[in-house]
Amino acid sequence: MWRYFGRKLLIYGLTFFVAVTINWMIPRFMPGDPVQSMLSRANIAQPEAVEAMRAHYTNLFGFDLPLWKQYANFWAALLQGDLGISIWVFPTPVTDVIVRAVPYTLGLLVPAILLSWVAGNRFGAFAARRKWLDNTALPVGYVLTATPYMWLAILLAWGLGIVAGVLPVAGAYSFAMEPSWSWEFLGSLVEHWLLPFASLFLVAFGGWAIGMRNMIIYELEADYVHYLQSLGASRRLVRRYAFRNAILPQITGLALQLGVLVAGALVTEIVFSYPGLGHLILKAIQNQDFFLLQGTFLFIVIGVLIANFVIDVAYVVVDPRTRIGMGEAA
Amino acid sequence: MSLTVTDLRVHYRTLRGEVKALDGVSFTVADGEIMGLAGESGSGKSTLGKSLIRLDGRMRHVGGTVELDGVELPVGDSAAMDRFRFSEVSVIPQYSMSALNPTRKIGKMVAELLASRGERLDPAELERRLELVGLSRDVLGRYPIELSGGMKQRVVMVVSTLLNPSLLIADEVTSALDVSSQKAVARTLLGLRDTGLVTSMIVVTHDISLVYQIADTIMVMYAGRLAEKAPADVIVTEPRHPYTRLLISSLPEVGVRQADKRLSGIPGSPPSLLDPPEGCRFRDRCPLAFDRCAEQPPFTEVAPGHSVACWKAA
Amino acid sequence: MTAEPPESVAESVAESAAVTAAGSAAVVTVRAPRREALYFALRNGKLVAGLVVVLVFLLAALLVPLTIDYGPNDYVGPAASAPSGEYWFGTTTFGQDVFAQFAYGLRATFLVGLLGGGLAAVIGMAVGFTAGYRGGLVDEILNMITNIVLVLPALVVLLIVNAYLGVRSVGVQALFIGLTSWPWAARAIRAQTFSLRSRDFVDLARLSGVRTPKIIVREIAPNMSSYLFMTFILLFGGSILIAASLDFIGLGPTQGVSLGLMLNNAARWSALHLGMWWWFIPPGAGITAIVGALYVMNVGLDEVFNPKLREM
Ligand SMILES: Nc1ncnc2c1ncn2[C@@H]1O[C@H](COP(=O)(O)OP(=O)(O)O)[C@@H](O)[C@H]1O
Ligand code: SF4
Ligand SMILES: [Mg+2]
């Protein structure tokens, strides 16, 4: 088991290293003089901003230094939490901008992932091998999982927000309010949260339901199920065992889908102008704020790595086989 | 009479039509009898075994009856069969190595299985049974992955016989094992009968020489039908059916294990069960075939406890 | 019994789950005889329905643009008009024909699916076959690389790359997508290769001195061809979805038109608030229909090749 965690941590460590290296390297592949081109692309008015940027870029790229030194400096700055200054909201440090946005993204993503996973698995297991449900629910599941996140978001915003007018479609709380700990403000938060949450939840729900349905059908053909049936075990027991075993690949599936779910959250936030990381990314791109973009990238990678590790731990808790000698991994 | 099977017909539904894997099979197994069921691969042994306890998805009960201890088993109706499974008919499946739920501790699985059948688990009895097959109670706290193949096999034997079934079907229980484990399993099967935990038994095998050591009688199948049934030593020493004779003579020596060599000694191959020919199914390969063999030979008793389906044997 | 290296259960289960996660049942290669496979294929409602939808859209992508004598971004009609006999899908705020954009956008969608999915499939096969067949250190290293690329969130990496380097064409976009979306396929193929590696016919080829690449191409790949095909279909659908997201964020190809870009424009120019539903419904519906049809097709194929999953 410790070997298992050691291996996982090694992979996550290496991944972080690769992510940082990509972050350092990509700007160097930019055609032409990167500092100049970034300055001109940024086209900002304040002269002090331009100066600050030039200083930062020159320092960042440090072209007069040997390559390894540039790389080392990059890591040094990173480890001090210095991700540069945002151009979009000059002169706020990128780290601050991101830290302010992270709660919104987490507030959307974590409930959407967990609830869709639980509900999707329950529903998929229930639908499997129940003919009428399977035949009606399955196509819906496939449509949902094939839907681009932003499109469902747009449809919900249009249908429920604009046409029906029941829910707000932009921001995280009413523009007329100042953040505070009042019931009114919390109500506004929830109201604004509902639609982006719903669109994330629905797409993910479809995927889990289908995955679970397929896994259950597969499990119901397993030898241990046939044995139980030969001994006249109740249908309930058989289904319980099948569910329990089918949930394991779904946990692994959760880890594999994290990237897609995060991407879904980003585009959903863009549709709803929800002030999380996705919104930052859009602003960074629109304003050519490369520091902000790179900083957000690193934050997301770190978040995904942590989530992966949490899932690994959950897997070990749920699958007894990982906890005993790993001998016969058939 | 413990088990009476009458004109049992079971087909597999496939695209090309019905595979007539069991085409009119009648025999009896007496109380206390261990019957070996032999025949080359594809002759319908497993189909017969499954028909007595649980038809799988593609099998269809076409006709015939199965009576156990005077009660007719609803073999074609899976839900109605549940009442008889485990307590009256039980099975040690061919896939014993993977028959246990990998994510449940064995003890827990057994308890849950019994509970779902409305039976109470007597822990002392369970431990005694485990002891009989040389397992300690510790296995109950383990997951299947922690046991060796032989241990899993023995656990399955104990589980399958917990409710003292009248009839136990053991399908190729030895083929995945090495020679010494095979002997042990054979002894265990014998012990189950001798201690009265199981009344009678059908031991499916393609290895006559092994089953000969424990079986009271041996029944030979060929292409979905019965060829011959007789006391074990009669089958080995004085077989009457030409197929049985070839089968026995292709064994190097009784008692020495013969792998599944698919009867390389007999030229030709069995007919397709999709559309089997009229008459004796062994006709194409039979050295004794004559005109009359175009007509199906009945499975008749030629001596006490010895039945054969061959015109030449009568 | 199997020749798998000592590896954690979690990992080997993960491998079989990789495909599941993408929307299909875990597959065991069961080789059905070809005729039987074809018989089932033609009678499998899911497969046929999925295929028909995909083909209809493919034909539309290929043929419809030929019948339109102006470009997708030309300002041809009245601004912001609802669907009519003349402009079937209406026009944008700028008077561009939404139907023309849709038809050309379908081309970009299929192209990015084909190229991106194709490249990912090629990389996935190369890595999966090599790792699975060679085993040992080669496997360790490839596995490590696969796992790293697997945990990196692909879209976010693509954001950085596209933002800095700029992507002009669908081809370049597909290239980057292919480079980031192969890992689950590599893992799945590796696991399958492991199980085939120790079979008799592979041993026979190896003993008779056939070289490794040839064994892989001649003996192993054909034995999992159905599996490879299904993997490709899933990669194809995945590429389309990633490309749509990138386009929507505004990092798509700067030339031409795509369904994702249409969504981007619709959102950017407030089609929602203006009630111009004809601008944002067709592109999203097109993507959903194509990707959904691909997934359904995949389940159908799975049932064709894996008889256990068929309902009787
Ligand atoms: N699932 C199935 N579908 C179609 N035919 C089958 C199936 N299982 C077995 N059969 C056919 O039924 C016949 C008997 O098979 P089986 O009972 O497994 O034989 P044995 O156990 O003696 O080897 C064979 O001809 C085999 O091809
Ligand atoms: S009936 Fe005829 S063909 Fe059949 S076994 Fe007897 S002799 Fe041979
Ligand atoms: Mg058999």
UniProtKB/TrEMBL annotation, chain A:
Tree of life domain: Bacteria
Bilayer disposition of the protein: Multi-pass membrane protein
Entries under SUPFAM superfamilies matching the protein: MetI-like
CDD domains the record matches: TM_PBP2
Compartments in which it is found: Cell membrane; Membrane
Residues covered by the ABC transmembrane type-1 domain: 102-311
The UniProt record lists the keyword Transmembrane helix: yes
Membrane-spanning segments: 9-26, 101-119, 140-173, 193-211, 246-272, 292-318
InterPro entries, sorted: MetI-like, MetI-like_sf
PROSITE patterns reported in the protein's UniProt record: ABC_TM1
Keywords of this entry: Membrane, Transmembrane, Transmembrane helix, Transport
Family (UniProt): Belongs to the binding-protein-dependent transport system permease family.
Record's protein name: ABC transporter permease
Native source species: Microtetraspora glauca
From TrEMBL, chain B:
Keyword Transport: yes
Keywords linked to the UniProt accession: ATP-binding, Nucleotide-binding, Transport
Coiled-coil blocks: none
Superkingdom of the source species: Bacteria
GO molecular function terms noted in the UniProt entry: ATP binding
Taxonomy of the source species: Bacteria, Bacillati, Actinomycetota, Actinomycetes, Streptosporangiales
Protein known as: ABC transporter ATP-binding protein
PROSITE patterns, alphabetized: ABC_TRANSPORTER_1, ABC_TRANSPORTER_2
NCBIfam families: oligo_HPY
